[in-house]
Amino acid sequence: MNLPTGAARFVFILAHPAGHVVAPRYYTPFFQEAGLDWHMVPLDVAPENLSDTIRVLATSKSAAGFNLTIPHKPAAYALCDAVGPAAEFEGVVNTIRIEPSGRLIGESFDGGGFLNAARAEGAFDPNRRSFVVGAGAAGRAICHALAAAGTRRLGIIDIRPFDDLTSRLKARFPKLEIDSERRFDDVGLLVNATSLGLHATDALPMDPATLPGDCAVFDIIASRRTELMQAAAGRGLKVVDGTAMIKHQLPLQTAFWRGGP
Questions:
Q1: Is residue 192 part of a domain?
Q2: Is 73 considered catalytic here?
Q3: CATH number of domain containing 160
Q4: Does residue 211 share a domain with residue 95?
Q5: Between β-strands 95-98 and 104-107, what pairing exists: parallel, antiparallel or unpaired?
């Protein structure tokens, strides 16, 4: 991997805290394989400093854009001058491009990266009930992607209200059946879209013993093999982790940073 020079450009991944961020190990090599002298740099930015950090960094010709992760996706949405269709529906962005004029254009690629990974791993069947634990920023994007891909039945649970998400999904996808029943006996795809699992001391987002034997488990945590992943694998279930989501998302984001839709 090449070290940055003065001609290099940088994509900043903003998080708080940032200790769990592993994305640069995938993005920087991808950039260089694509012939780009680009590098991803993680920054720990407190929420109260997010706006100032983005505004200042965006003035540098060395900055190619931003990648947003916990907890910045909803706040970053409000900082954009314009957003793409996925972000507009979800109310969050995880990707910001800096236009030559200085305008900030945002989009959400969590859903696209998730769905492409789930399909590649053979974990998605639209005829089976999908279940998403966590309706935060990533969870909203994943629910949107599942609905857009033709999922017929979708369970969603979260400690926070998700009435707005439910109403948006029902308005856009009127044939979609949505429930919040903590029932897993008919689930074909279980998604952990929470931050539970970042630490070994975290509680399980749900009991994997209640999943059917042919269920796939997709845990979006990328920094470690979570206890949910281990328990699901121990039962012989198909397990997909967050690195798959990163790998399938980064080409979409890179094209966007380079000026694509």
A1: yes
A2: yes
A3: 3.40.50.720
A4: no
A5: antiparallel
